[in-house]
Amino acid sequence: MDKRKIKIMPNKPKIKVLFLSAEVAPLAKVGGLGDVAGSLPKALAGLGIDIRICLPFYGLIDKRKYPAEKIISRLAVTTGDKDKIIDVYKTNLPGTKIPVYLIEHKFFSSSEIYSGPRLILNGKYTRQPDDLKRFAFFSRAALAVAKKLNFKPDVMHLNDWHTAPVAGFIKTLNQQDNFFAKTKTLLTIHNLANQGINKNNNYLADGILNADLINTVSPTYAKEILTKEYGANLEKILKKRKKDLYGILNGIDTGFFNPATDNLISQKYSFKNLEKKTANKLALQKQLGLPLDKNMALVGLISRLVWQKGLNLITENFSQLNCQFVFLGTGQKEYEQQLLSLSKKFPRQFSALIKFDEKLAHQIYAGADIFLMPSRFEPCGLGQIIAMRYGSVPLVRKTGGLADTVNHKVGFAFKKYSGQELYKTIDKALTVFYKNKKFWRRLQLNGLKQDFSWNKPAHEYLKLYKKLKK
Ligand code: ADP
């Protein structure tokens, strides 16, 4: 018998976190915010944190796929005008035991996550006023739910402008009772360009001023947003909070994005048999109606089609490049039209799919040789990381998280925002692709072998939580 004494560790209380987001993949996703909210909490739970998620119960959430039980009926939420009544459902983040509290109210019953198209004025985003009302309400409701469940979080983890109001609301609530007296707030900025603005409010600015700590999603973007060029008019208040501002690079769900186990692609592969990737290119060319040619370079782009993403750099003269292009995305009509017209004019070379399609996205990550992200600015960017995970070589503008993730060992980058620079960089990449297969393979393998998981970033978030709990 083993006589060694078993040391009994005193049970350390778990850190309790309520994680609030307007998107959580796979339940409801539009872009990278959804990816992060659907995967970071898993890694944090793995570190022993009692983390729970709060999400609006959008009409688009598939109730059959994600069954939810009602846990609260008719809870009154105090708002500026009069009380509103919500029901609360609980489901688990798929594949985990992490509770997701779904807040049901007619505000969220439509089939869209965001109620109106984004208004884009001079390159700056703003939201329809309706969305400001919806998410301020969601923020208040999340606090009411925590209280009703008697869940006193150490940290309210707020994401983007939608839930930033919580940082201010908590301060007001603390003047009334002490339920949240020990609760601190962390505001993660996934994109400074979306601020939640109307005549009298700027939700993100309020959040930045009120949150206990702030972080953004890459070290470079954390520095860039202190400048006029990238600060989106918030650089002054961000500078005030500089000592509380951190940059933590996003990870991805390496279980979901894994070419070795991905059921959405035609041929699974890994770094051990990368030659099998070619079958995915051929399947994609066939599906898109492009000429079947395993030796032809295929350039992919998957993106929200908005001003930020640098789409106006892609022009007709790109038809002179010796490669095929596939574009997948939705967004502003002008960019949708621009990409569609390229595909109409050069159908054997350009393919444009204007829709949101997770399966096709995986097929493009797996089938492409080069993955484009010519963004004007990019807080982190997940596309280039997912691309590397699938052995596609990223070609990016050197800004924000793109600068932090893509160097000459894994891909190609250009600095100046111009179509000519992008064209030249693609041309350079194509020369390597056609003339130096060995070097190309090296780029792919270097990308594939990196650790893109949440392990490291989750520890960095834990450090911030601990700082707040002190
Ligand atoms: P952003 O957060 O600005 O949208 P990211 O690169 O951080 O950009 O994340 C984008 C995420 O959304 C990636 O997972 C990308 O594959 C996905 N995505 C974007 N557009 C589409 C689309 N039309 N269909 C499928 N997935 C998409």
Any ligands, ions or cofactors bound here, and which?
adenosine-5'-diphosphate
Shape: globular
Straight-line N-to-C gap:
42 Å
Structural class: alpha/beta
Task: Compute the CA-based radius of gyration.
Answer: 23 Å
CATH structural architecture of the largest domain: 3-Layer(aba) Sandwich
Average pLDDT over all residues: 94
In DSSP terms (H or I, runs of 4 or more residues), the helix count works out at 15
Number of domains: 2
Spatial order of strands in the largest sheet: 3-4-5-2-1-8-9-10-11
The CATH top-level class label of the largest domain: Alpha Beta
**In total, how many beta strands?**
17
- Contiguous low-pLDDT stretches (5 residues minimum) are 118-122
CATH superfamily of the largest domain: Glycogen Phosphorylase B
Helix content: 25-40%
What would you note in describing this structure?
- The protein is of the alpha/beta class and 470 residues long.
- Helix content is 35%, strand content 20%.
- Helix 2 (129-148) crosses helix 4 and helix 4 (165-176) crosses helix 5 (203-210).
- It is globular and about 70 Å long.
- The model is unreliable at 118-122 (pLDDT under 50).
